[in-house]
Amino acid sequence: MRAVLDGLAGDEGSPRVGRLPDNQHWWRYGQESFVGLRPRAWLMPPYVPIVGWLDSFPEMKAVRAAYAADPVRGPRVDALLGTIASRAARNFDWLFIQHVIEPMVLATGGYEFRDDVFQRVYAQFEMGFGATTITMVEFLPLNGFEPALPRLELPDGLVLQPMSDGQMDHAISALAVPRLTASGVNGAQISRHDQWALTRSRVLEVVAGHVDVVPPNAEPFPTLLEPASSLITALRIVCGGSAITTYPMYAQADDEFPIVCGAGAVLTTFGAADNTRPTRLMPKDADAVRVVYLALRLPNVQRDRALQVAIRRLVIAGTRNDDGDRLIDLSIAAEALFIQRTNLPRGTKGDKIAAGAAQLLGNDPQLAAGPTEISDFMAEIYRARNAEIHGDGQPYRGLRRLSGAPIESLALAVADAELVMRRAVYLVLQDHVKAAR
What pLDDT sits at residue 217? Predict the structure, then answer.
């Protein structure tokens, strides 16, 4: 390092440090702004990245000899490096330049050798390059999600949390998060509602060199699709909104030495969230989300056909951008959940839905409405549903909110209908949980 820094000082005098265009990564410049511009970098002389530059220093022979004698690090020099399922050729000189020389230059602001800085920087490099295990993180981004808590822990090592800057970089590159209209060629505007992910971490063994046979215990991927589906369902039931999941992705943890470069992604299809109706998760709702997430796995819940239809239609309603379509899906959910209930009066489907909703939800504190208000509201919602399906010319006359207040906005009526169905599904799930104890 002394020889290298002395050589650079003799050639340049002092280093140039500043922003550096980067066409391979997205760097955060604000809550919603990401730019292909590294904020602070060493603007290297053009000969530094050329293969063989370090070997032009006689002292490099001793470095290579020392590494060749190391049983762990020696096989990793200029070799394939990664895990059993993902390895890439790594140039030792370039790793040394990136993780030792450049950090020293940036830390000192010059080409001077400072032993305290060198000991710290090189110790991190040697430990990272020789790590026997690394942490791989599988993450599944959410769109249309607005939490008011730092993270949500779920069973089986799952964590719902903000994506790290490195994960955001991968998600933008893979189109797993939508760009806002203000985005440009070298800049990406990503809504704050699209920056969380469901994650799970695994500790894996580092593998160097050629390994011809992939053992059957290679890390599975993807594994988050099923739990993510349950999570989205739980969020819809407890919080409403339109949150969705996008591409399953896989990358090494940001805070580790980069043994594995880049990220893997499964380019599945996905819909679009409505960021005017984000799913808002408040701290008071965290326990309810966990309860519903676990309840969805219960055998008696999975066998309840009427409940399953209601849940599916409630989730679908959240993805609709058209209020009329949401009204139809919520009405189907109401038909499935209420018409099969016992002790309902005879009459039309609308009458049974109104009576069933009043019977189940008449004393629900979150609705703040009595049985009569709930019954009248659901009867009106079902009449609006019939008008929507039959294409009536003036389908929404006489609409009211759950409180009974008259309105002309279908969106407000549908929002109240969604709240009614969310609470109804939640209470039925609670009954199943109690029966399973």
Answer: 65
